[in-house]
Every structure is written in C-alpha cells, then in structure tokens.
Design goal:
26% of the residues lie in helices and 24% in strands. The protein is built from eight helices and 19 strands. The strands form four sheets. Strands 11-12-14-13-15-17-16 form a seven-stranded mixed beta sheet, with helices on both faces. The protein has a five-stranded antiparallel beta sheet with strand order 1-4-10-6-7, with no helix packed on it. A hairpin with a 5-residue loop joins strand 11 and strand 12. Helix 2 packs across helix 8 and helix 6 crosses helix 8. It is globular, with a radius of gyration of 20 Å. The structure holds zinc ion (ZN). Zinc ion binds next to loops.
C-alpha cells in the first residue's frame, strides 16, 4: 500500500503503517494554529479494509471525509465511517486507487477543465507568485463596461468550496436571464480565482500562515506579489467599482460554520450589505439556502475588522463600494449536504443578487 501526496493539493504526513492501520496527520506547515486541511491518495490496497487514524485532532467535517475512486467525482463518505479521529474505508476488489480529502478539492487543473467549457472568460496573469507560478486573472467584459466588480477566492488556500461558488458566478454571467443580460451589458467581472496560488497547488492550509496570511496582507507594505498587483488594479478601477466580493469557507464545523453567511461591516457599508442580503435571500433558487439571520454582525466573535483584509482595504480606500466577504461552508448548510453543484448554484444566486444590487444602486435598468 502506497500513500501519496506529491500532486497538486496533496497534504499528508504518515507517521506509521502497521497492518491495516495507518497513523497519519494533516501537514500544518507554516500555519500558526491548529487547522484541518488534508488530501492524499492510496494505491495498492484493493480488497483491504484500512483504518486511517489521524493523530492531530478531529479533522472531519459534518459529512466525514471525501473520497474519489474514478479520478474525477468526489463524494462525502458520511460520519458513519468515522470513529473518533479515525475513519475506515473498505477498498473494493478492483479498487487499486482511491483519493481522500477533508473537503472536495479544487486546484488549477480543475479550473482549466471549467475554462475549456467557458471560452468567453478571458485569461490573463495577475503576477508571478513567490514560488514562480502564474496567478490567474479572469475577466468577463461587458459591452459598455459601466462597472467593475472585483472578486477574489482562495486568499486562504484550503478553502476549496469557494472555487465552486466562483464557477457558479462565472456561469451565471453568460446565461439568458434579465439579470445575466444586465451583467453582460454593464458589469465587468475581474476575478482572481487562486489568490494564494502557491498554497493551493502545494496543498497548504494557507489560513493563519506565518507571519501573516494573504487576507492579512492588505496593509501598507504587502508581503505577497499578488496583493501588490491586485492593489494596483483596484486603484485603476476606482471610478467604476461599486461592489467587491471575497469568497471564503469558515471554520471546520459547528453553529454558523454549517451555514452560508456574510461577514458584517461597519456603517455605512452595513446598510448596503443588508440590502444585498435581502436581494440574495429573496431571489435564491439553489438547493442550499442562505438566511440573512446567519450573517455574523460586525464586532461579534472574530469579526473585529482589525486585520488588514481585502474587504477592509476596499472599505478604507474606495468607500463608495460595498465589499462583501462571503463564507460558504465545507460540508453542510442548514442541514443540507454541500456538493459541488450546490455550491455552483449558490454562486449563481450570488451573481443574480449582484446584478439586482448594481441595477438599484446605479439607476440603470
Ligand atoms: Zn478564509
């Protein structure tokens, strides 16, 4: 039996293999606090039942681990296979390879697949990352270019579900609905799909990276090339920026972390967010339901507004814009199981509300 993690998004440390029990743990690398992302591949275990004993905390979401046995489609294994901090998997007789992960993975290769089906998305490069990778910059250009909406995802590398939400936003822009047509006419989407590109490809947690992570880099002296390049572009769009989005996933499980929610802002931005939230709540059609009551108020829990985040940077420098941080859960939303398609459907809901919001605030219809 081989346990591998030397592929994009891979992350595991194997402590020992004894019989049918593997002791292993997530690789936290430079993350300064406990975090929970992991992903590995097993080969050569066909016909065996293997217990994967994690040795660094409970790293399973509310639907257990994810598995992929065909190299393409991922599904949740459910909590039934979980026993404490271990899970057990019975490999079929002909199952020579299976991939396991904390959540449904998403790396550059997945984006490439999406883009082959969406050739209208213009592909540029924002900058070169610290470890020499191209940081993608995607654009959907409207006919009139009246407004620019910057959108970021994966400022925290491990927050994969945000990428499926992003796919939904991109897909909605091109659809044949009144809201889509307004976007095609007036709204340019400017998107950084993998802000921490190195972290995404190398399988880092990304969150709470030392000395600070990408979503604490929007201060006077940015550490990362992506932040510096993005700041310059935002400034170039300052006259046309009306909304900006930053897509995240929350904590591993529990309470609000099993809901879709928006991160509250101070006034006057809070009033704009509440209007946007109402539009989103009213217009949504996806199976995963957003409730504005789950938003985390500004000043509550961790939402102190003190870090040098992307959304705070937009508020401070472009106060006419509404900068929304969206938190999309890993495994469950309101008791419903999160799937890639469910996340995409929420992305479409988000794009619809975005269109309605811009129409209202611009007086254009
Ligand atoms: Zn995040």
């Amino acid at each position: 039996m081989n346990i591998e993690a030397d592929f994009p998004g891979g992350n595991i440390l194997v402590d020992s293999v004894q019989g049918d029990t593997v002791c292993l743990r997530q690789d936290r690398r430079t993350t300064t606090e406990w975090w929970f992302y992991w992903r590995f591949r097993v080969r050569g275990a066909a016909g065996r039942t293997i217990r994967f004993q994690f040795t660094d905390g409970d790293v399973f979401g509310v639907r257990g681990p994810c598995v992929c046995t065909d190299g393409a489609d991922w599904r949740w294994l459910g909590r039934e296979c979980v026993d404490g901090t271990a899970f057990t998997y019975a490999f079929a007789e002909n199952e020579d390879r299976a991939d396991f992960a904390f959540c449904i993975p998403y790396v550059e290769a997945d984006l490439r697949t999406f883009l082959t089906w969406h050739p209208d998305v213009r592909q540029n490069v924002l900058t070169t990352s610290e470890r020499g990778r191209a940081v993608e910059h995607l654009t959907l250009s409207s006919r009139l270019g009246s407004f620019v909406v910057p959108i970021t995802a994966r400022l925290h590398a491990c927050e994969t579900m945000g990428s499926f939400v992003l796919e939904g936003i991109l897909a909605f822009w091109r659809e044949d609905s009144p809201e889509s047509r307004f976007l095609q006419e007036h709204v340019d989407l400017q998107i950084i799909p993998f802000f921490d590109k190195d972290g995404v490809e190398e399988g880092d947690q990304g969150k709470l990276r030392a000395p600070h992570d990408h979503n604490r880099d929007f201060g006077p002296t940015p550490r990362y090339a992506a932040t510096r390049a993005w700041m310059a572009l935002l400034n170039a769009w300052r006259e046309k920026m009306i909304v900006a989005f930053d897509i995240h996933c929350p904590w591993i499980r529990g309470g609000r972390n099993e809901e879709i929610f928006l991160v509250g802002s101070p006034e006057p931005w809070q009033a704009r967010q509440e209007r946007f939230a109402a539009l989103l709540e009213q217009g949504q059609a996806g199976e995963l339901t957003y409730h504005a009551q789950n938003n985390i108020p500004y000043g509550a829990e961790w939402n102190t507004g003190e870090g040098n985040t992307f959304t705070r940077f937009v508020r401070d420098n472009y106060p006419v814009a509404f900068a929304g941080a969206v938190e999309f859960p890993y495994a469950a939303a309101g008791g419903q199981t999160v799937t890639a398609d469910g996340a995409r459907a929420f992305g479409r809901d988000l794009a619809r509300a975005l269109s309605q919001y811009v129409q209202e605030h611009s007086g254009l219809c």
